[in-house]
């Protein structure tokens, strides 16, 4: 495929409320995969869903249908053509089923029209591998800069709107889930507490902003499961504690509530991740998912990693929140492994 083993991948991501398409030139082996991002376009539907305080699946579907051709047009300017790509990739799950289908059908049509192979990608693998895009600037990452063998074994914390998962990853292609949330995901807790504080959807980034000027030790909110030996999480009790606090203290300073809530969630995420890293004796901690763009979480985890002599890896913000560049990375790794996936929407797909 392609010349000099370059594989140009066009990826489509519509699992939630971002319509995203990326075109990435991939190369290298599983020991040193390389990615050169040619185009990475994300069209957000936030404004559409904002009045409802959350994503409305039927609206997401309608918007994806409308936006997909427009986003593709932006990706394919005078320099790039679908004919020149080697592979079309599409997110098949997990996500909102009607939203997933719009991307899948669009990708199927493209692949058929241009006679290109089509590969289904797990959205969570996209998050898992997103950090591989982090050190690349405009040029190809060389193997000397980025040695996969020095990164693994690793503990990966995926924190998004739908998931909170801890993974023990032995190497690029072998991993085991060691824990996950039993109720709300971390991003979901952020969004729900933000709503209690009358912040607009999606609340995570808004709550982080508000917390900046607040006192994080003003209230002592619970740190659920922090001392339990397992690597599972639970955030619904923390959310309820904030709800009751606000009910009983209607005059509480919102910024203090935001900062104290954030402190509780970061304490739990950091402590359990570092404990897992030490127990499994890994080299690195990888942070991924939408909540990974939270500066306070990144800073704290990085500091704890330094103390514990662990590498700390994470993509920059634009590759943390949903995007299609991360889907090309997971697609390329699947392609190198000759993996196939069913091209149907799998709303509950897991890692
Ligand atoms: O990975 P993502 O874009 O979509 C899913 O796959 O879920 O994650 C979205 C989630 C939302 O809950 C959003 O509020 C949260 O990530 N989020 C943040 C921040 N940026 C996004 N949460 C806390 N702080 C942030 N800066
Ligand atoms: Zn995501």
TL;DR of this structure?
This protein has 351 residues and is of the alpha/beta class. 40% of the residues lie in helices and 20% in strands.
Structure explained in plain terms:
The protein is an alpha/beta fold and 351 residues long. It has 2 domains: 147 residues, Nucleotidyltransferase, domain 5 (2-Layer Sandwich), CATH 3.30.420.40; 166 residues, Nucleotidyltransferase, domain 5 (2-Layer Sandwich). It is 40% helix and 20% strand. Strands 3-2-1-4-5 form a 5-stranded mixed beta sheet, sandwiched between helices. Strands 8-7-6-9-10 form a 5-stranded mixed beta sheet, sandwiched between helices. Helix 6 packs across helix 7 and helix 9 packs parallel to helix 10. The chain is globular, with a radius of gyration of 20 Å. The protein binds 5'-O-[(R)-(carboxyoxy)(hydroxy)phosphoryl]adenosine (KG4) and zinc ion. 5'-O-[(R)-(carboxyoxy)(hydroxy)phosphoryl]adenosine binds next to helix 6 and helix 7.
